[in-house]
Specification:
Helix 2 packs parallel to helix 10, helix 3 packs parallel to helix 4 and helix 5 crosses helix 6. 44% of the residues lie in helices and 18% in strands. The chain has eleven helices and 13 strands. The protein has 324 residues and is α/β, with parallel strands linked by helices. The longest helix has 23 residues. The protein binds alpha-D-tagatopyranose. Alpha-D-tagatopyranose binds next to helix 8.
Length: 324
């Protein structure tokens, strides 16, 4: 009898011991919703996210809209919520317009982590405001990025003359903060005048025509800061089309592979590469940690690599160019 009882106890303990192991064996599905799908920045972020998903045995779903716009992103988010993933990683395309749509995910019990961009103030889990519910924010320090851009442009133009910011549209946390950092730093450079920002709706062709229009109004224009990939590519093309390569200096945020030629020909002075793969990797790791009962940091800051003619051929630098 005693042996039977002992065996029963063993069986019970074995079941209890097995339970957590089975929970860990659950295959989690994590959705990554980018700002838009056709952007090397998010394509590279997806690669980093996939690397972490493979390492952790997670199923990664990448679903997004073809343009950077809340009007097209919200239906994608709704469709993802309906499929009930275990967690959502998202780059919200507007600080305000994505708050209510994301609350639906949170109310449905789906943990939300924002990557690259944020909602509200970007300071989460404080109990303040109505947009603090995401668990974490994983991104570059975009104010710092704008300051770095301003310093690079100031050096390129000999600390004097007229410049402007080519930007996407107001309301995007990242590009708003880059402009803020840029202007904050430029305020210290008394010889530099920052002209009115030109908003291009993430359309490189529009950014190129705007460059030419600003140059037509200000023939003494000496520099432009392209605050994201399409703004920078467009502004650089505008400088080229205006025949001002090397005269109107370009500092670019982001690093698509085409930036290499632009740096080597002298069209772009400096490119500030973000580390989107790092953002994707730590996004998945954070979601997985949360899902498996670990606490996670409320904010993770990822790095930059500054590229120019002197270092772009170095593989330690060029490995940060974005994937196509
Ligand atoms: O600069 C990145 C990203 O950080 C920003 O939020 C939106 O634009 C990019 O995707 C580049 O196109």
């Amino acid at each position: 009898k005693k042996i039977v009882a002992a065996l029963a106890v063993l069986a019970v303990s074995a079941t209890v011991l097995m339970a957590p192991a089975q929970a860990q064996d659950k295959k989690y599905t994590i959705a990554l919703i980018p700002g838009l799908t056709t952007d090397g920045f998010y394509i590279t972020m997806r690669k980093g996210a996939q690397a972490a998903a493979d390492a952790l045995g997670v199923n990664l779903v990448f679903q997004g809209a073809p343009d950077f716009n809340p009007v097209t992103q919200v239906p994608v988010l709704d469709a993802v919520i309906a499929k009930k993933p275990d967690a959502i990683l998202i780059a919200p395309t507007d600080k305000v317009q994505l708050v209510e749509p994301l609350r639906k995910a949170n109310d449905a019990g789906i943990p939300v982590i924002t990557v690259d961009t944020f909602i509200g103030s970007g300071v989460y889990q404080t109990g303040a405001g109505d947009a603090d519910f995401p668990l974490a924010y994983i991104a570059s320090d975009n104010v710092l990025g704008g300051e770095i851009a301003a310093r690079a442009l100031a050096t390129a133009i000999g600390d004097k003359g007229k410049v402007y910011v080519s930007n996407v549209k107001p309301g995007i946390s990242t590009t708003d903060q880059r402009e803020e950092g840029f202007k904050k730093e430029m305020a210290k450079h008394t010889g530099i005048t920052v002209l009115e920002t030109q908003f291009n709706d993430d359309d490189a062709n529009k950014a190129a025509s705007q460059l030419q229009a600003v140059f037509a109004r200000n023939p003494d224009l000496v520099g432009v800061f392209g605050a994201n990939l399409f703004s920078a590519l467009g502004a650089a093309n505008g400088v080229k089309q205006a025949g001002q390569t090397g005269t109107v200096k370009v500092v670019a945020f982001d690093a698509p592979t085409s930036i290499v030629d632009n740096i080597n020909t002298g069209l772009v002075d400096v490119a500030i590469a973000q580390h989107p793969a790092e953002i994707g990797y730590f996004g998945v790791v954070s979601a997985y940690a949360h899902l498996t009962g670990q606490s996670i940091p409320v904010a993770i800051g990822t790095g930059f690599t500054i590229m120019d003619k002197s270092n772009i051929a170095d593989p330690k630098i060029s490995k940060y160019l974005y994937s196509e």
